[in-house]
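Minutes, structural biology subgroup

Action item carried over from last meeting: produce the structure token record for DUF6056 family protein (Actinomadura gamaensis). EB confirmed the sequence was re-checked against the source entry. Recorded below for completeness.
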Amino acid sequence: MANTVEVKQRTPHRDESGGPPGSPRRPAVISAAVLLVAFVAIGGVLCFLGIFVRPASDDFRFIVIERRDGFLGASSFLYSSLTGRVGNGLFVGLAYLSPDWGLRLTPTVALLSLAVAGALLAHALLARAGAGAHPLAAPLAGLGTAVLALVMQPRAYHTLYWTAGVITHTLPPALVTGLAGVALLARSHRARLWTGAAAVPVGVLLGTTSETISAAVLILVVLAGIGQPVFAGRATWPPAFGVVLGASTVVGAVIVLTSPGHAAALRQRTHGEALVSSRVLADTVATWEKALSHLSTDAALPAAAAIGFVVCLLARTHRPIPAGRLLFALVAAGAGVLALTFAVMWELRVGWGPGGWRFYRAWFAFQYAAVLVAAFYGYAAADVLRRLRSRADVPRAVACAVCVALVAAACTGAAGRVRHTATAMMHRAAAFDAQSARAERAKRDGARTIAIARLPIANLAVPFEKRRGPDWLAPLIARYYGLASVTRAPGNHRKSGRPTGHPTGGPSSGPTGGPGPGGGARILAPGEAKIESPARALPARPGTVSPGTAARPAPSGRGGLAAGR
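Output recorded by EB:
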């Protein structure tokens, strides 16, 4: 009997499908390995392209400020003269301590921060669900959602390679996602105490970095507060952590709203309308519908859902999510994306007028949230299907093949745009390096003025746009090179991107929808013209440009509450 018992104890436990352990998961494991290798390769290419990043637009401003005033110079400048975003200035100070390295490492920092944050959140959710996930699950979820969100974004260059845009639009969502994952992983009293203590400075930093992320945190807190009495009935750790983080974010937002820089931005708003009015609300709803229409056709969302589906199939054990909690989570996640999208559209409308919605880099916050939610929907769909039938390896293999095909279709669709952007970056890097060498030679020869090319990239600001008012960028470029002034190189009408203008005025259009400066097509980011509209994006004056802004001055001294979008 003892031997019989011992044999039974050593007999491998047969899983749900009745086959050998792990066999039903084999298609999911193979699919996850293939997808993870593909995402690593894509991420490696994206990070490698960082060696071709050169200063553009606001980069010149902050490099000059860093040289003159040191690490805290950007924070002081933003707080007193621009938008009041002190936290934004702290990130700027770090990024431009060594401009060459900071610019080149920007895509690596952006991608890794989102990937690590997504992996932490996925690992925490799987651990709390008791799914016993495969080691590939969390890395696949983190890296997959990061690559999809960054590559499929309409202004991918602005949120991946432009340091000022990454600071404003990419790092804050990564911080919130990662901190949420850490909070969910905290089980002991000491771990929760330390996590709550860390949430205070991080929340203040987030509140002083981006108004959009403040809205996102508050939306999360509200949704958690609604679910708390419904399912818990008592005080639990996640909502308490949300309250601490939300309160800290509000403190940071108050610092921004009471700053001299924010007061200046309000005085320089583009149109002088009330922050809340029937016209503003109507325009916000209209642009909200445009943004939702874009999301409904975004190939990144079905690809993210496929990733979530595979992650669920990787689970060693099947402990279904309670139906009530699953339904609430599905509804709350969708409602959160809708609310965040509306908040972003309102901020852009208030700050930039009817055409402000075209500042696509500001869309990254709700697009990244939509990718995460799509991955969760995919996980939930797989969870429901596993309840209905836990056998049949063939349907599971077919489902994994479909998931791989969805991800492959999304990545293939983005490959052309990435290739176009890579070509533009390489050409501009070569021209910029040649121009910098010429400026250094001229300075050594005693020259105080040189002629420079405009070197456009991704529809960012370029010098000598005098049709828009005083040229704020040319003096900064002169100070960047240590010269008294710069002039426009004669005959500098270099075209980039397509050899001829786009017939719709999309990819070849300038920041207001008209022809780009110099009469030629400008180097654009992948998918820049994804949404066409005759709406004109309103410019800002030199004093209202912050990290992530369009950085285009207006003769009447305009800016916006949402400057930096």
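Discussion: The CA atoms of residues 289 and 342 lie 9 Å apart.
Next step: EB to file the record with the rest of the batch.
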